[in-house]
């Protein structure tokens, strides 16, 4: 029984890795579409989000069936419950990548971020991609150094998020209301994306070290 | 054993009701603070959010211990899993109420929404409060008519959310960049708050009717 359970846990882990790789693709394409005003790529991200949703839903069913059939307790149970939460967060990261792609599509053929903010969003987008890649490797390898790196990248993203507001609220901001609305939402999406990655990374770390936090997805 | 389990499920339900009532208080005070620029009330919402977080965390622990000790299967297992998800969504609703309160605090003694948008935000805030109250009653009574009412209120909130963007992007918008950023974020928070309520209401409905959706919190 124990061996079957271990094999099922590996299956859960593999599926989380699979979903996380689709999230990497989504955020890579979404930020490229956003930075380069590539409407075809934006449409692709939007169309492919349902794949992430379906895989996350399947994974939830698998986790529930493992709980019902294997009746795990203690640490094993927490692993399965945490898989449900990671699945929900990955699915939400896919949604956010879709929101970023939607902004690119709305403004096409214009770029969402202009002139003074191009550099900031380019860096934020690249950091979100790195965070997603590190998260995928973290889930696959459980190399916990990656969890700390994700947290560091998130700190930098938070700084950039603040700098967007400072730019928009400064005397020299020459953007229209459309620009202001767009960059406000875009910055929030970029920041929330990384927050979810930090939340998942914490769960992987707590599970690996045996230290558990009961708190939900923040 | 079955009787013990039923009693534990009632305990889970009672705790969900307790948390949902705190969410009602949080959104009531947050929207009042927001509409009336009441900084003391805003501070109170911000300070009290940790209570919601702690109760949600305790509820998660209870749900996990029920799974470990009672080993529920089939529908019973889904009820407990859904409680974990409802707890995460309620906790997130508390966070969003806190974000609305933070906006009020940042702009004090000014109001966040001005002039032409005062009425829209007043209606959105009142709808969020109604949605939270209906959700709390829904969890308590399982009166499924409330789930449909919540969905209807959410539709109206979505309309108001769109109208905020229309106002901000219109030729006649005279707000500063600060106003534009604030109302963009505020409108998004009001809209997401109700989205989470709809997500929870769906779970209650599916559980009550026996029809289950595997999808995570959207």
From TrEMBL, chains A, B:
Ubl conjugation found in the keyword field:
no
Say which domain of life the source belongs to. Answer: Bacteria
Ordered alphabetically, the record's keywords are: Cytoplasm, Phosphate transport, Transport
Task: Check the record and name the Gene3D superfamilies matching this protein.
Answer: Phosphate transport system protein phou homolog 2, domain 2
A GO biological process of this protein is:
intracellular phosphate ion homeostasis
Q: Which InterPro entries match?
A: PhoU (IPR028366), PhoU-like_sf (IPR038078), PhoU_dom (IPR026022)
Against Pfam families, the record matches this protein to: PhoU (PF01895)
Q: Quote the cellular component terms of the Gene Ontology held in the record.
A: cytoplasm
Keyword Transport among UniProt keywords: yes
State the compartments where it is located. Answer: Cytoplasm
Query: Where does the PhoU domain start and stop, copy by copy?
Result: 17-103, 122-204
PANTHER family tied to this protein? PHOSPHATE-SPECIFIC TRANSPORT SYSTEM ACCESSORY PROTEIN PHOU
> Family per UniProt?
Belongs to the PhoU family.
Explain the purpose of this protein. Answer: Plays a role in the regulation of phosphate uptake.
Q: Subunit composition?
A: Homodimer.
List, alphabetically, the NCBIfam families matched: phoU_full
**What name has this protein been given in UniProt?**
Phosphate-specific transport system accessory protein PhoU
Q: Which organism is it from?
A: Subtercola boreus
């Amino acid at each position: 029984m124990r061996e079957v359970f271990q094999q099922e846990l590996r299956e859960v882990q593999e599926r989380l890795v699979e979903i996380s790789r689709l999230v990497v693709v989504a955020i890579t394409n979404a930020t490229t579409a956003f930075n380069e005003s590539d409407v075809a790529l934006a449409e692709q991200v939007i169309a492919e989000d349902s794949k992430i949703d379906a895989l996350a839903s399947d994974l939830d069913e698998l986790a529930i069936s493992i709980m019902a059939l294997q009746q795990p307790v203690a640490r094993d149970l927490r692993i399965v419950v945490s898989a449900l939460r990671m699945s929900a967060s990955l699915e939400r990261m896919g949604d956010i990548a879709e929101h970023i792609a939607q902004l690119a599509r709305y403004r096409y053929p214009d770029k969402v971020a202009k002139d003074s903010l191009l550099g900031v969003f380019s860096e934020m987008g690249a950091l979100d991609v790195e965070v997603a890649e590190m998260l995928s490797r973290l889930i696959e390898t459980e190399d916990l150094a990656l969890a700390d790196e994700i947290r560091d990248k998130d700190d930098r993203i938070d700084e950039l998020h603040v700098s967007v507001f400072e730019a928009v609220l400064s005397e020299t901001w020459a953007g229209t209301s459309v620009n202001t609305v767009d960059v406000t939402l875009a910055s929030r999406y970029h920041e929330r994306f990384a927050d979810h990655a930090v939340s998942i990374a914490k769960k992987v770390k707590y599970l690996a070290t045996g230290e558990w936090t009961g708190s939900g997805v923040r």
